[in-house]
Write a structure and sequence with these properties.
single chain; alpha+beta; three-stranded antiparallel beta sheet; 22% helix; elongated; DUF7128 domain-containing protein
């Protein structure tokens, strides 16, 4: 299931992971991340 949201900021289109809110400028990157995102344990956030 695709949870990526398209959003526009500063005149650019971004793709946001709805699970963790990370933004990507490439929809394939966003979908790849979202497919592997475990929002229950965002280990990369300090």
């Amino acid at each position: 299931m695709n949870m990526v949201t398209e959003t526009t900021r500063d005149g650019m289109t971004w793709y946001e992971c709805e699970k963790c809110g990370l933004l990507f400028d490439n929809v394939e990157d966003a979908e790849s991340h979202e497919a592997n995102c475990d929002a229950e344990d965002p280990s990369y956030i300090q």
